[in-house]
Amino acid sequence: METNITMAEKPNYGSPTWHVVSNAMLGSALILVGVIAGVRYSPLLYLLIIPSIYFLWSAYGWSRGGYLEERLRIREEFIRAVGVGDGERILDVGTGSGFLAIGFAKAMREGEVVGIDIWMPMGGGTTMENALRNAEIEGVSDRVEFRRADAREIPYPDGHFDRVVASFTIHIIRDWPRALREMVRVLKPGGVLALLEPGRGWASGWKVERVVEHLKELSLKQVKLQPLTINFPKRRTVYLIKGVKTGGRNEHPSIMELAGRFEGAVDYTGEVKEEVERLFLQRHEETK
Ligand SMILES: C[S@@+](CC[C@H](N)C(=O)[O-])C[C@H]1O[C@@H](n2cnc3c(N)ncnc32)[C@H](O)[C@@H]1O
Fold first, then answer.
1. Helices (H), strands (E): how many in the chain?
2. Domain encompassing residue 21
3. pTM of the full predicted structure?
4. Residues 26-56: pLDDT tens digits?
């Protein structure tokens, strides 16, 4: 396949359309006001044009995937916290420009990463072509696949993925409980679900505290909420929400399984049996 990638080409991890539009509009409005006021009232008012440069430059920066370094730092921190193993299957929900999907694919030597999105027009201004191009630029086209699909109806069977992740997506979905249910459904028992989202979602009733409760009800254990300070698009606190789906292979070993580990080494009776049972109950309580 012809790739046509230049050495200097950087991935474009999108920009919230709102930032591009608002900065461009503000910049243009200041130019207009500066020119009209300068002509009509005083040449000094031409100075109003100067701040417009800042806004137009910001709009350009956003449209070119501005703040790329900060975005990459956030991605690295997220992947470090969530973990990744070679040969895993990973799903990035609301992948946009492939931001997390590509990051995970880069962090594995082999495996399968899927990014799904409906690529809504005002959802960050990204497209599937944009995601595919980024995968090429980052050299992981062979490990990552993009599909048009809705988070509320994920087209994969139960227990398909080792990790299901999302960034800045679930809080904008009106029926986010349904999206979370789907994400947990396609996760393997023992698999990890991780989200990077703001504390509040103004249109969807999203509140991180409610999300944590909801995930616990969806039989996720070890649900943790970790605040992260990021500078995207401004300095603010977002939350890494992480949990493990119950029912993993090593979870709740039966008494007989535990006993099997002692077989041949000790006599599994009396005090040893009591101790094994005590440890089993303690482990069971810890993993609840
Ligand atoms: C703010 S962007 C975040 C994109 C990417 N995860 C990132 O961090 O750069 C939100 C994304 O969620 C997608 N989205 C919104 N509703 C969705 C849904 N119901 N199912 C799948 N994707 C959705 C939008 O199209 C958009 O690409």
1. 9, 9
2. 17-63
3. 0.76
4. 999 999 999 999 999 999 888 888 889 888 8
